[in-house]
Design goal:
mainly alpha; 3-stranded mixed sheet; about 350 residues
């Protein structure tokens, strides 16, 4: 069931804001890292990833099918590595900021994502998610029905193309990871007025330094391994990982009963809890994706490291009923393209 309503277990005399405040207090008790768990997760995930890469190199001369399976495994592990980098960006993976930042920068060599650039834009996404007057870089462009109807036909067509899953996810996410993040400037599509994201000097520095580091690192690896072998392995892993990440990011906020409000009515805590989904995945997929499917908890309290999210939810079972999405539910989200301010729902083009 897709719902942003209060669970049945919440007393009806409680206002939604009271419920959100109560849940936030609960979540904050899980804030903060555990050094041993962080180091263990980092070491095991990194080791498994390197081992898988080694097995892929060996399998190239023996079995295409085995190579394909190992590439899928590597993409899952790289997704988990990205979640670790993601937690570093929120300052939740280690207690010391330097430890978070340097771990995040080193992991950029594997994720290809400029750490400081991503940290700034992603935290901007957290600060503005669900606010119709502050839509900016870091989220999927979402227009209201009224805004869409006011567009000239050519921009309506451009928005339709942009929101096509093939363009947005299958083509867009690999293109973004491989190319767009290499360019020290931002070209917003600007479908709506108010897209005011500006690239900063620190973002440019992050992109350029990451580019230089990637060039040096992969030139060295390619020299020893062979550039053909390197890209035969690396490209499919990066592409598959970007698809996984793009899909997760999409379903985390693009569901029917999500949350969007004008600035005067927008509440950051309500937006965090009610505008983010609980993507219920099988345990094995939850492990590979670092519990990021428990996104409503993460948005409400981004200082919780990924390995504590499940414990946080288990301690408050009503969290399992908020914006609950199964895999089949999530497929239905693909048709949702516009926010209907009157109905307070995401709707498809056909509905207007």
């Amino acid at each position: 069931m897709l719902t942003s309503e209060r669970p049945a277990s919440v007393p009806t005399d409680k206002r939604p804001q009271s419920f959100v405040t109560d849940i936030e207090k609960h979540c904050r008790t899980y804030s903060g890292s555990d050094l041993k768990r962080s180091l263990f997760q980092l070491a095991t995930t990194f080791s498994l990833y390197l081992l898988t890469l080694g097995l892929i190199i060996v399998s190239l001369e023996h079995s295409f099918f085995l190579t394909a399976l190992l590439i899928v495994l590597a993409a899952g592990l790289l997704t988990r590595i990205f979640i670790i980098q993601h937690d570093c960006g929120h300052g939740s993976y280690f207690k010391l900021r330097k430890a978070n930042d340097w771990t995040g920068r080193i992991l950029s060599l594997l994720t290809l994502t400029p750490y400081n650039f991503w940290r700034l834009t992603h935290n901007l996404h957290h600060a503005t998610s669900g606010n119709l007057d502050r839509r900016s870089l870091g989220g999927i462009d979402t227009m209201t029905v009224r805004e869409y109807k006011a567009l000239p036909k050519n921009k309506q067509k451009a928005y339709r193309i942009y929101r096509n899953p093939v363009i947005l996810i299958l083509i867009g996410t690999p293109l973004y990871i491989l190319l767009v993040q290499r360019i020290p400037t931002i070209f917003p599509l600007n479908f709506f007025s108010g897209y005011k994201t500006l690239i900063t000097a620190s973002m440019i520095k992050s992109i350029l330094l990451t580019n230089a580091s990637l060039l040096t690192f992969y030139y060295t690896v390619g020299t020893f391994l062979g550039f053909y072998t390197l890209w035969t392995i690396l490209l499919p892993i990066i592409i598959l990982t970007s698809w996984i990440g793009g899909w997760l990011f999409y379903v985390q906020h693009q569901f029917e009963d999500t949350y969007w409000q004008k600035n005067q009515s927008w509440n950051s805590k309500e937006s965090a809890l009610l505008g983010s989904s609980y993507y219920h995945l099988p345990k094995i997929f939850q492990w590979f994706t670092g519990n990021i499917g428990l996104h409503h908890i993460h948005h409400l309290c981004s200082k919780i490291p990924n390995y504590k999210l499940q414990h946080c939810m288990d301690a408050r079972p009503e969290l399992k009923n908020i914006n609950h999405l199964t895999f089949l539910d999530s497929l239905k989200c693909l048709k949702l393209k516009l926010w209907d301010e009157d109905r307070q729902k995401l709707v498809c083009f056909k509905s207007i």
